[in-house]
Amino acid sequence: MSKREADVVHLVAQGLTNRDISNQLNLSEHTVRNYLFRVFEKLGVSTRVELALYYIQESELEPVSAPLNQHSAGALRSAAQVISD
Question: Which of 6, 17, 50, 83 lies 20 to 30 Å from 36 when distance is taken between CA atoms?
Fold first, then answer.
């Protein structure tokens, strides 16, 4: 995974939208979608939640430096519970 792809994954895991990510990384939303498409293919995931869970579980990627917002953290906990059941 490229550095830029890892940056996008990091921001998805924080709960940012494509628009927020594009603003933060100074990219077009189209470019962000392209990065996400490539990352989904590389990792074999199909949703943002799966991607965020992958990010959280992988020690190879840098840990999230900023806390997840409450909505995102709750959604991830719910998704993790469903997956583990």
Answer: 83
